[in-house]
From TrEMBL:
It comes from the Bacteria. The keyword Membrane applies. This is Uncharacterized protein. Keywords: Membrane, Transmembrane, Transmembrane helix. The chain crosses the membrane at residues 21-45, 57-79, 86-111, 140-161, 168-188, 208-227.
Length: 232
């Protein structure tokens, strides 16, 4: 990578990051709204409450991956930005956003469990059983890997839609449904669901999150190949 290409990638990232609200504020507004609702609920409830409301942030990152292509690709290509520069510039953005979000989640998990003991009402919104096991550094890595994984899953779906249109998405949906149906049938017939559950139970969250890394790289490679062949 030469200096010129690096400069183009930084320009792409800077352009995308002009929408600071969508990248840095909206995910936390959505998660914060869920947190407030759960905090009020916990105040009037008896005993500890553990909720999965923080999943809203991960869902948002998946949606951001889908929306980023349609929101930024046509605009940037209109300024003669190369597709490779767009791809790596976007990668830099999600890398930065992932680091910030993972750091925020790790900090809130620590504060919630170690300092505030469930915010004084027994609410565990950020510090979850199994997911939040390990040190702060381990939790940070888990959160980061999951955020990047979900973003690129959404990004790949958007690239498929951009490259093949509605028909391509319809075929993809049918294929995923068919594969899922066959897989579920085989798992049920062979009685492998219990084995799968036991296998997952024997893994740490870091091991499972680490297992998403090869899939993330695959999503990135497929997205890159599709972007190079897509029209605006």
């Amino acid at each position: 990578m030469n200096i010129v290409q690096s400069g183009r990638m930084k320009a792409v990232a800077s352009t995308i990051l002009k929408d600071r609200f969508s990248w840095f504020l909206l995910p936390w507004i959505i998660s914060g709204s869920s947190f407030v609702v759960n905090l009020i609920t916990a105040y009037f409830a008896n005993g500890e409450i553990t909720t999965g409301g923080v999943a809203s942030l991960y869902i948002y990152m998946f949606a951001a991956g889908i929306m980023s292509v349609s929101n930024t690709l046509p605009f940037l290509l209109g300024f003669s930005v190369r597709r490779s520069d767009y791809f790596w510039g976007t990668g830099g953005v999600i890398g930065l956003v992932g680091v910030i979000c993972a750091a925020g989640l790790s900090l809130l998990s620590y504060v919630e469990s170690e300092w505030l003991d469930g915010w004084g009402v027994g609410l565990y919104f950020f510090h979850l059983p199994y997911v939040s096991e390990g040190s702060v550094a381990v939790q940070f890595l888990v959160y980061f890997l999951l955020i990047v994984f979900l973003f690129y899953l959404g990004f790949l779906i958007a690239c498929v839609a951009k490259r093949f249109g509605k028909n391509g998405m319809f075929i993809l949906a049918i294929a995923v449904l068919a594969i899922g149906t066959v897989w579920s049938y085989v798992m049920t017939q062979q009685g492998w669901w219990i084995d799968l559950g036991q296998w997952l139970a024997d893994r740490t969250m870091l091991e499972i999150a680490g297992g998403t890394a090869p899939l993330t790289l695959l999503y990135m490679a497929l997205s890159y190949a599709l972007l190079r062949r897509t029209s605006v």
